[in-house]
Amino acid sequence: MTALLQLKDLNVSYATGGTDVHAVRGVDLTLDPGGTLGIAGESGSGKSTVAMSVLRLLPRAATVSGEILLDGQDVTAMKWGRLRAVRWAEASIVFQGAMHALNPVRRVGEQIAEPIRLHPSDGRILTEAGVKARVADLLTQVDLPPSRAGAYPHELSGGQKQRVMIAMALACSPRLIIADEPTTALDVIVQAQVLDLLSRLVAEQKIGLIMISHDLSVLAATCERIAVMYDGEIVEQRPSAELMASPEHEHSRALAAAFPTVGDPVSRFAPATSNPLPPEPADRAPAGEPLLAAENLRVSFRDRTGKRIHAVAGVDLTVARDEIVALVGQSGSGKTTLARTLLGLQKPDSGVVRYDGKPVPARGAGLKAYRRQVQLVLQDPTSALNPVHTVYEAVAEGPRIHGLADERAVVTRALEAAELRPAEKFLDRLPHQLSGGQRQRVVIAGALALEPSMLVADEPVASLDASVRGEILALLLRLRRSLGLAALVITHDLGLAWNIADRVAVMYRGELVETGTVEQVLLDPQHEYTKSLLAALPGGTYRDDVKST
Amino acid sequence: MTTAETPRQIAWKRRRDGLARSWQGFAGQKPALIGLILLGATVVLALLLPLISDESGLDVTKATGGPLRPPSADYWLGTDNYGRSVLLMTMWGSRISLLVGFSAALLSVVIGTLIGITAAHFGGWVSATLLRFTDFFLVLPSLILAIALSAVLPKGVGTIILAIGLTAWPSTARLVRAQTLTIESRPYIERAHALGGGHLHVIGKHVLPGVMPLVLANTTLVVGNAVIADATLSFLGVGDPNSVTWGLVLENALNNGAISAGAWWNVLPPGIAIVLVVLMFTLVGRGLETVFNPRLKK
Hints:
The structure holds 2 protein chains of 2 kinds. By secondary structure, chain A is α/β, with parallel strands linked by helices. A 6-stranded mixed beta sheet of chain A has the order 6-7-8-3-9-10, with helices on both faces. In chain A, α4 (108-118) packs across α5 (128-141), α14 (391-401) crosses α15 (407-417) and α17 (436-448) runs parallel beside α18 (466-483). Chain B has a single domain, classed as MetI-like (MetI-like fold), CATH 1.10.3720.10. Chain B is elongated. In chain B, α1 (2-27) crosses α10 (268-292), α2 crosses α3 (86-122) and α2 (30-52) packs across α10 (268-292). The A-B interface holds A 343, 345, 367-368, 371-372, 375-376, 378-380, 383-386, 388, 390, 392-393, 396-398, 401-402, 406-409, 411, 427-428, 430, 443, 446-447, 450 and B 3-4, 6-7, 10-11, 13-14, 18, 186-188, 190-198, 201, 205-206, 209-210.
C-alpha cells in the first residue's frame, strides 16, 4: 500500500535580504491513508511551512528541495494543471484564523460551493440544485443547519466559522486534510467541539489528517502520532500516548510541561521554568483584608441597534495582599471589561471599586495616585509597547508621569526585578529587537517601576510561545513570593490558574458563577459552567488521566 | 546629573540613527533626491538674489530696455511692456512665492494638526463640533474665501499668507485625525493611561511623534499648493501690488497687452517657474511619504 503522503528529506529555505533562512531542514514524514498525524512546535519552528509545502502554497521566495509524494506522485514535479486538480480535490487545508480566512462580503454557502464548482467530480458539472444539495449535505456533516448557508461570516460565531472552514475542506471529498492551528483562537468549550467534529469526520470518511498546533494536549486528543518540530527539524516522532507519557527530547518535555494537567500536584505552584522558584515564605499570613474589592459592579454597553449589553452584571470580587487570583471565563464573558473597570479605564454604571477600603476616585489626582498602586499588564506585549520607544523610555514612562526621583535607578531596579539582567544590556534596545518573552518582561518592568501593590494581567501569556509561558508565569509567582505583590490574572486557560493562582473566580455572561480556592473550584466544581469548562480540557484533568491509563 | 544624561544620550543616539535611516530611505529614491537638490538650489538662489542682482531693475521708472522686446543677448528672456527684464522679475518672484508658500503651509499645517489631534483624542462632542467646523471649511470654495479675506484685510504679503493658511488646513486636519485614531487604538495608549498618564502625556509622548512624519510629508505637498494659490490670488489682483510675484507678472502680461501682442516670453517664464517649484515640492513630498508611511513601501 502506498502511503497517502510521504515527505522525503524536505528542505525549505526563504531568501530574505542577502541570507537564506532555512525554515525546514531534512524532514521525513509518512502518513498512511486514514491516518492522523500531529505536528507540534513553537512559532518559527517551521511547522506551517511543512504544511503549506504539501500543496505548494509557499511564497515565491521559498526554495523547496526533497520529495513530496502525495499518493505516490511528486507534488514538486507536478505540472500546473495537475497541481490545480490535486489542490482541494485530493488534499485540502483548514487555515488558521477562521475569523480572517472567510470572505466577509459573501454568503458562507457560496464560499463552500466555490471548490465544488471549480473541481467538478468525475468531470461532470453539477447543476445549481446539485451544488445546493451538496452544500446542505456538508453543513449537516459539520453540525450546522443547512439554512445557515445564507449567512454572512460576521453573523456566525468563531466556532461556527471554523465549522464552515471544515465544510469547505471537505467539499471535494479529499483524501487528506491539513488543519493548521484549527482551534487556536477558540474558547475551550468550542475547541473541544471542533476537535470532536474533526476526529469524527476523519474516522467516518477515512480521511488522512495532519494537524498542526503548539499545544500538545490538543494533538494528543485527535492524532495517533505526534511529530515535534524544533528549529526546522523533527526532533521526536512517536505515538501520541507514548510521547505524552514520557517525552524524550528536551523540547518535547518543555512543550508538554507548558500546558499542565489540571489536578496534577506536580505542576501546582510550579510553572515550567529553568530557574528555581523561591520557597513559600514560612510566615505567609492567610488572606487578610481585601486590597482591591469590587462591590456589585455593573457595566453595560449599547450595541449598534441601541440594545443594552450587560458586559459586567453585578460582580463582587476581592483580591487580598500577597494573593494571586485567576479570573477565568471564555471570550465575551466580560472579564476584560471587569479588569478595565477595576483599573479606572472604564466607568461602571453602578457599584464601587474599593482600594484599601476606600472607593477609587473617578478622576483627578486621586485616580492618578491609585494608578501608581494598581498596574496593568496587557495581553500582547508587541502592541503594548510603542515601537519607537527604547526599553529605557518604555519603563521610565510611569516614573516620569509620577515624577519619581532618580529615574535611572528606578528603571534599572524594575528591569532587574522583571529578570532582564543585566539591565544595562537592554536599556537602548527597541521592542522589535527583543523576543516575545522579553517584551512581556519589559511591560511587567514598566508596571513594577511604580512599585505597585497589585498587578492586573490580561491574558499575560496568551500570545507567547509555550516555552516562554512558564517563565512569565514563574515571574508572577516569584514577585508574589518575594515582594508580596498581589495579582489578578485574567485568562481562559485553566492550566494557568492551576500553575500559579491561589483563588479562582469563574466568570460567565457577566457574572461570577463560582469563586473559591483553586483546589475547591477546579477539583470539585459546583457550577455547571465550571464543570463544562473542565470537561472540555483537551488534556483532561489529572484524575481522568489515572482512570484512562 | 551624570546618571540622568546617559538615557538622554541614548535617546539622541537613537534619534540620530532614525534620521540616518530615514535619509537613506529618502536618498534611495532618485526623483525625490533630484527634487530636493533643485529645491535647495532654488532657495539658495532666492536668498542670494540681493547680492548677485540689482533690485532697481524691477523699478518701472529705472527700466532700461525697450517695451516687449523678445529674448536677446542683453535680456535673456526679453522685456515686459515697461522695459523690465523678465528674467530678473521671474527670479525675484521666487522670493515672495517661496515665502508665501512656506509660511502659509506652516500656518495651515499647525492649525490642521491641532484640530485633527484634538478632535481624535477627545472624541465625543468636541470631536463632533470640530469635525463639523472642518467640514464647513472643506466644502467652502477656498479660492473665493481667500479672495474675500484678502479683500477685507489690508493688502500685503501677510494677508495672502493668512488667506491661504486659513483655507488650506481642513485636509490636513482630516489626515491627522485619521492617523491619531489609528495610534490611539493601539494598546500602548491604554498602557499609558493605566500608568497614570494624562491627555498631555498621551498626546505629547505617543500621538504627536506618531503623526509627525506624516504631517511633515503632507507639509511639503501643501507648500506646492500654497505656491499655486499665491500665484492665483496675485493673478486675480488681490495680492500686494508692490511686491513682484509670479502671479503679478502674469497679471501684467494679461492687462498690458503682452499676450495679445504675442509676447510669449512674458507668460512662459513665470508659468514654468510655478510648475517647476510645485513639481519639486511634490517630488520631495512623495519621497517623504514613501519613507514614513510603511504601507507605501514595497
